[in-house]
Specification:
It is built from four helices and seven strands. It is α+β, with helices and mostly antiparallel strands. Keywords: Acyltransferase, Transferase.
Amino acid sequence: MSGKNEIINEKEAVMVQTPVLTLTKPTVEDGAAMWQLAKSSSLDTNSSYKYIMMCEYFDDTCIVAKDGDEVVGFITAFIPPKQQDTLFIWQIGVAASQRGRGLGLDLINKLIEREACKDIRYVEATVTPSNKASQALFRKLARSHQTDCQVSSCFSEQLFPGDSHEQENTFRIGPLRS
């Protein structure tokens, strides 16, 4: 080599193949990885028990994205007993390596296609005013389903102990199906 920088033209470039992710129901074994992913992000971190419990008792309404055996994304969600037509999304976690690729939207869409969600007409989540990424995701979900996204006040900051939690606003997307 002559010491000069070599320029490789596009014809000589090596194709980089992005891995295909598997979107599936979580198992209790996935709970710890979901907790770790939440802990390594800006999400509110719940106890590891919460993630394991969601995998055990709410697996029909939760989903994980895996790259091989590694959990790189998840949603914890449930159907509120008094709102059987609504899927409430508690958390969406996406690994830094997967952000900006539409994984959050893919996870939601795959989740609402499940048999357990066949009667779901609305998706709800609470989002803080500073969480612009989640706000954009839920608005994009509404646009992709050509439906409404209504935002209303839910939990004021006065309800939270301490002084470091913003208010939570409800994002309600739907109706999803006629």
